[in-house]
Specification:
The chain is mainly α and about 100 residues long. It has one domain. It is built from 5 helices and no strands.
Amino acid sequence: MSCGQPHEVDCSEILDHLYEFLDREMPDADCTKFEHHFEECSPCLEKYGLEKAVKKLVKRCCGRDDVPSDLRSKVMQRIELIRSGQVPDSDVPATPVTPQES
């Protein structure tokens, strides 16, 4: 996705690291670059607003459940594999996977 306008930080980089920005898991200088980008780029600002709203909704609806540490670890490992490009997009399910009943 790109708005077609030149920016200090490219739209693709913004979207690739959007959750790091949302979670404040990046240096303040990088956060400032993202904020500046959002001021210039309405498509990225719209995507940011949508993801922020979804994150808020998930926290409100599911934020009270404790996640087993082994599940959290597996999910984080999978996310890192996907981010590093070690897992092709075709291996990432497009629909949520539901747990099997015991």
